[in-house]
Specification:
The structure is a single chain. This protein is α+β, with helices and mostly antiparallel strands and 254 residues long. The protein folds into 2 domains: 160 residues, no CATH class; 87 residues, Alpha Horseshoe (Serine Threonine Protein Phosphatase 5, Tetratricopeptide repeat), CATH 1.25.40. Helices cover 56% and strands 7% of the residues. The strands form 2 sheets. The protein has a 4-stranded antiparallel β-sheet with strand order 3-4-5-6. Strands 1-2 form a two-stranded parallel sheet. β1, α5 and β2 form a beta-alpha-beta unit. It is globular and about 65 Å long.
Length: 254
């Protein structure tokens, strides 16, 4: 659980940055990650940039970053060091690259948590970037087209569906992507993902119980049950549910 502790330590540091936190997530999957190496790569990508258009051209034309549509659910798409090495990723991790290169170059970018598809906005403007779409620039109509294509929803579209994403929310979304990938047959990976997810706002008893189940699937049924029971004081309104889940875990030993 060393990577989990490092992730928590990053979040406790004043002024922590999105890139170092994303690399701490990546270390959960790959303990050999050398964060300094990849922070230096982000520095290199930002060298000499002085405009929004120049940033888009460098990342998506010169450097060739692109969305990995063919292997969308490959966990490497959610690990920042792999995205930097392979030039492939998901909408949110490619957006993190944009934002962190922009931060270094003094170009203000912000993540946009549009339902169904994460975007980047040039702060203070109506210019949006689809990082997964090769850095395509979008106006509001273009954002609506992406929204309809990715969700199939026909609800009224507007700026209320283009909220600025906080840095903790971006990290949570990366972890949710990994959670979905690791649910099928990867309890060890699911465990560290859930422990990191629980370090961020917006979690509930579902994550707690799923963590207990992941611990149990690794053979630690008693430890998993004890963990769930230890959380009752934090979630007294779910005491019966947590105690029942703990009993179910112990039943695997009968």
């Amino acid at each position: 659980m060393e990577a989990v502790e490092e992730f928590r330590a990053v979040l406790r540091r004043p002024g922590w940055t999105l890139d170092e936190a994303a690399l701490a997530i990546a270390a959960g999957a790959d303990p050999t990650v050398q964060a300094d190496r990849w922070l230096t790569e982000l520095d290199r990508l930002a060298e000499g940039l002085d405009s929004f258009d120049g940033l888009i051209r460098r990342l998506f034309v010169t450097e060739g970053f692109a969305g990995n549509a063919q292997m969308y659910h490959d966990p490497r798409n959610s690990l920042l060091h792999q995205v930097l090495a392979r030039r492939l990723g998901l909408p949110i991790t490619l957006s993190v690259v944009c934002m962190e290169v922009g931060r270094r170059a003094g170009i203000a970018l912000e993540g946009v948590a549009m339902p169904g598809h994460f975007l980047v906005r040039h702060a203070g403007t109506d210019s949006y970037v689809d990082a997964f779409g090769g850095g395509e620039l979008l106006d509001l109509d273009g954002c609506e087209n992406r929204f309809r294509r990715s969700t199939g929803m026909q609800i009224p579209f507007g700026e209320h569906l283009l909220p600025t994403a906080t840095e903790p929310a971006i990290l949570a979304r990366i972890l949710e992507n990994l959670r979905a990938v690791y649910r099928a047959g990867h309890p060890a990976d699911l465990e560290w993902v859930l422990r990191m997810r629980l370090a961020l706002p917006g979690t509930g008893v579902e994550e707690v119980i799923e963590l207990g189940e992941a611990m149990g699937r690794r053979g630690g049924w008693l430890d998993a049950a004890a963990y769930l029971e230890s959380t009752v004081d934090s979630w007294p309104q779910y005491a019966e549910r947590l105690s029942g889940a703990a009993r179910s875990l112990r039943a695997h030993l009968n």
